[in-house]
């Protein structure tokens, strides 16, 4: 009689594990993915703030505009001589 009850108990525990373990595993995977996405959202929000400040600076600061144009596009003023330094390969 006691053996029968023990077998039913272990059978019930085994059945519960079979039913709920895949769902629990999936829940843990989703929690981990959610955490990773929250970290990515925070990083992108910080980058977005930086880029918004950069846009405002470009729009309002003519000296910064000139610096960007000179560095990125290689534009020079009238009567300036552009000089390029080419590194030597060793």
Radius of gyration: 32 Å
Task: Note the gap between the termini.
Answer: 87 Å
Unreliable residue stretches: none
Our count of helices gives 2
SS class: mainly alpha
What are the secondary-structure elements, in order, as H or E? HH
For the secondary structure, the number of strands is 0
Strand content: under 5%
Main sheet properties: none
> Domains counted in the coordinates: how many?
1
Residues in helices, as a percent range:
over 70%
The backbone outline, from C-alpha atoms, is rod-shaped
Question: What's the pLDDT, averaged over the residues?
Answer: 88
3D architecture notes:
There is one protein chain. With 90 residues, the chain is mainly α. It has one domain. The protein has 2 helices and no strands. It has helices at residues 2-60, 62-73. The longest helix is centred in the middle third of the chain and has 59 residues, at 2-60. The mean pLDDT is 88.
Layout of SSEs?
Layout: H1 2-60, H2 62-73
Summary, kept brief:
The protein is an all-alpha fold and 90 residues long. It has helices at 2-60, 62-73. It has one domain.
Task: Name the descriptors.
90 residues, mainly alpha, 2 helices, 79% helix
């Amino acid at each position: 009689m006691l053996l029968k009850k023990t077998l039913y108990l272990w059978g019930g525990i085994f059945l519960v594990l079979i039913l709920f373990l895949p769902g629990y595993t999936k829940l843990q995977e989703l929690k981990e993915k959610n955490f990773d996405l929250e970290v990515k959202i925070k990083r992108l929000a910080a980058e977005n703030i930086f880029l918004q400040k950069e846009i405002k600076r470009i729009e309002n600061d003519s000296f910064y505009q000139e610096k960007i144009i000179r560095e990125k596009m290689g534009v020079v003023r009238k009567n300036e001589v552009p000089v390029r330094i080419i590194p030597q390969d060793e």
